[in-house]
Every structure is written in structure tokens, then in C-alpha cells.
Amino acid sequence: MSIIAPSILSADFASLAEDIKDVEHAGADWIHIDVMDGHFVPNLTFGPLVVSAVRSYTKLTFDVHLMIQRPEEYIAAFIAAGADRITVHAEACIHLHRVIHLIKEAGLPAGVALNPATPLSAIENILDDLDLVLIMTVNPGFGGQQFIPQSLEKIRQLKGMLEARGLHQTYIQVDGGINSHTAALVREAGAHVLVAGNAVFTQQDRAAAIASLR
Ligand code: DX5
Ligand code: ZN
Questions:
Q1: What EC number(s) is this enzyme filed under (predicted)?
Q2: Three-class SS of residue 153?
Q3: Residue ranges of the domains in the chain?
Q4: Which of 62, 99, 120, 143 has the fewest CB atoms within 10 Å distance of its CB?
């Protein structure tokens, strides 16, 4: 059974807490929180203040995706704001091993995200330390983009790498262009955690939207 993590990037920011509670009631497993700095990606969203503002409205896991440069500078602030797990981009970290251990030593599961053009070899030397690998299935920065089909082979290869090392607890997460059609493809390829923004938040019936991704 897939873990479904609606991305609040596509939520109504004028009533963010209500939208989060709505998808919780609709069966969401995690809340995916897309943090963007306007430098690492060509979009600017929000920081720890927004995370802490909505923290008390739900018990769901806050899955924080840092699409920012120098994420190590903000790990403590997002943890204080209520993050339950933090994912950083391999492309944004000069010292990726150090950043991953900064997150883990603070007691949180740590993930690494790979942009579509970044090979899996970027994480082969720290794969045993990771709780999650996020395979970006669009170029990061915006919701509502088209799924990149080459991602499927990358997911399959990652699944093979994890199985070869006996890493059965490490999540494969996918993010971008996930809908009822692509959800079936990524699940078959080996994905465990499906992030979906537009496919959930643009729908009136969020429960049906989430169910269609499982
Ligand atoms: C893109 C974000 C994704 C995005 C997914 O940079 O990381 O989480 O919000 O949006 P959809 O599901 O609409 O493609
Ligand atoms: Zn994301």
C-alpha cells in the first residue's frame, strides 16, 4: 500500500490549515511541504514560520522537502517548527554526508532528493545512511508539471540498489506529475511514497483523489 503525501504547494494558502485538515480527513498519510528559496529552484515559497503556523492543526507526518541552497543552515529551524522528516537535494550540498548526519543526529529520518538529470551514483556512497531517496519526476520548482517518463527506469534501478544491499526500510519517494495514471507506473517500478499536489488539491473530492493514487 503506497504512502500518499499531498504537497501543500497546490493548497489554498488563504486557508492552509483547513486544507491540511481536509486532506487528513480524506486519508492522506503524510503532508509534503515544499520549501523553495528562489535560488536553488526558480520559485519562492515559505519558511519555518508557515510550518510552525500549521503544525498544531494535524498529527500527520510533516515531510519537509528543502529545495534550497545550503540546507544545513535551516535544519534546526525546520525541526523547531515541527518537521518530522527532512529531505535535502544532493545538488544543493557540498558536504552531503555531513548534512544527512546533522538531520539524523537531531533524531529525524533523513532523505536525499535527486533532480531528473542527477544520476543515482550521486548517493551510492551514502545510501546505507539514508531513510528515504526522493526521485524527482519533474524539474523542481512548480506544481502541475508533466511527469518525466525516464524516471521509471531510475526508480527501478534504485529499487535494485536497495535490494542488493538489503536496505528494506529505505523509502523510495516520487514527486511531480503524480496522478492516477502515473501512480500505477511508479508503484510498479518500486516507489513507496507518492507526492501529489495538483492531483489532490485541485479536486473537490480529496478522498476520491487520494484513493485513486493508492
Ligand atoms: C515540485 C515539488 C512537488 C510539486 C508536485 O518542485 O517538489 O512536490 O509540488 O506537484 P504536482 O503533484 O502538482 O506535480
Ligand atoms: Zn516536493
A1: 5.1.3.1
A2: helix
A3: 3-213
A4: 120
Residue 161 has pLDDT above 90, yes or no: yes
C-alpha cell at 148: 518525466
Indicate whether 1 pLDDT > 90. no
Regarding beta strands 171-175 and 132-136, do their DSSP bridges make them parallel or antiparallel, or are they unpaired? parallel
The H or E element containing residue 23 is helix 16-25
Ligand 1 atom index nearest CA of 145: 14
CB atoms within 10 A of CB 49: 9
Q: How far apart are CA 120 and CA 102, in angstroms?
A: 22
User: Measured between alpha carbons, how far is 106 from 120 in angstroms, rounded to an integer?
Assistant: 26
What is the separation of C-alpha 170 from the centre of its chain, rounded to a whole number of angstroms?
14
User: Mean pLDDT of all residues in the chain?
Assistant: 98
ipTM confidence score: 0.97
Q: Which residues surround ligand 2, an ion (CB under 5 A)?
A: 34, 65, 175
pLDDT for 148: 98
SS3 call for 133? strand
Determine the distance separating the centroid of ligand 2 and the alpha carbon of 192, expressed in angstroms.
Answer: 15
Q: Which residues of 134-158 are buried (b: 16+ CB within 10 A; e: fewer)?
A: bbbbbebbbbeeebbeebbebbeeb
What is the per-residue pLDDT across 11-29, written as a single tens digit (0 to 9) for each?
999 999 999 999 999 999 9
pTM of the model: 0.98
- Residue 195 Cα, ligand 2 centroid: separation in angstroms? 7
